[in-house]
Design brief:
107 residues; mainly alpha; globular
Length: 107
């Protein structure tokens, strides 16, 4: 359900973005790649998991931009969580559209 997506997005943002304002670029890159690869644990193919790192770059940028404007780690986590949740919702909606179109034999 939607609330579990928000919770998982928040957990991932706290694990992979919180504190990024203090990290070196090398550590940020590592966290972005780790973010993608952690999805392989749940059965997502490695290539797809690595592709999810692109989303991780976006979420990192959202986090850092908000941190710079607010100087608040919590505000930055909330902002990146909102972006992450919107991203997940868009992916789920797109998948649902494809399932419906396939079921209707439109594809």
């Amino acid at each position: 359900d939607w609330s579990s997506d928000v919770c998982s997005s928040d957990l991932e943002e706290r694990m992979f973005r919180r504190g990024a304002e203090q990290w070196s670029m090398r550590r940020r890159v590592w966290k972005v790649l780790s973010f993608g690869m952690v999805h392989a644990i749940i059965g997502i193919p490695i290539a797809v998991a690595l592709a999810l790192s692109v989303g991780g770059v976006y979420f990192m940028n959202v986090y850092l931009r908000r941190f710079r404007s607010s100087l608040s780690v919590e505000d930055a986590v909330m902002e990146s969580t909102a972006a992450h949740t919107a991203y997940n919702t868009a992916i789920l909606f797109t998948g649902l559209v494809f399932v419906v179109l396939d079921a209707a034999h439109v594809l």
